[in-house]
Amino acid sequence: MVAVVRPRTAAAAAGLAVGDRIMGINAQPLRDAIDFQFYGGDDCLELSVEREGRRRALRLVRRPGADLGVELEAPRPAEIATCANKCVFCFIHQLPRGMRRSLYVKDDDFRLSFLHGNYITLSDLDEATKQFDQNLAEIVSQNAKIKSYVTKLESRASEEEEQATPGASDLPPASQLVDEIEQFMRQQRPE
Ligand code: SF4
């Protein structure tokens, strides 16, 4: 949903308005603000917009590198992915009662991290991984030069993996350390 249209920008010239719901760009359906940034990177955009229940097409052209002139609404609390972890030391659970409700949301949403720099735990990234893979596959399929570059990178990575010496590090895996710390804290917790 469009929250702001800046005057004297490509969005204003195309007739985009506050409250419009941008459903697609250049025939690509949009799932969220990340898709909007991804597909909105071109200078020539065919927008599919829903306004007052009706679909309409808007053509938006901007100078290379110029501001598009659009800000989208922030995701609503119900749309934010929340943390699935159960840390015994969770800082959200330690907050005093009676503060504003948004402070108690254990947000763990890659979109907020990407757009605003919020911390995420990286423990629940299936959806983000799928989206990233899909975006990457589209880019690769559309550009032969990038395709050959990615193929070279992948073959170099698998060669390096084969040459790596197993057991080169004395450190245990990070996941083992985290398990041990959590177990220790559980033991310290008063019943
Ligand atoms: S990862 Fe953060 S928000 Fe989630 S349970 Fe642990 S401390 Fe709480």
Query: Which bin fits the share of residues in helices?
Result: 25-40%
Mean pLDDT across the residues is 83
| CATH homologous superfamily caption of the domain at 2-72 | PDZ domain
Query: What's the tally of helices?
Result: 6
Strand fraction equals 15-25%
Which architecture name of the domain at 2-72 does CATH use? Roll
Largest sheet: 4 strands, antiparallel
First and last CA, distance:
48 Å
Helix/strand/pairing class, anyone? Answer: alpha+beta
Number of DSSP E strands: 6
Bound small molecules, by name, code or SMILES, are: iron/sulfur cluster
Rg, Å, rounded: 23 Å
Task: Please state the overall shape, judged from the principal axes of the Cα atoms.
Answer: flat
- Order of strands across the biggest sheet? 3-2-4-5
Brief overview, please?
The chain has helices spanning 10-14, 33-39, 110-116, 126-142, 144-163, 174-188, and strands at 2-5, 21-25, 28-29, 44-51, 54-61, 70-72. With 191 residues, it is of the alpha+beta class.
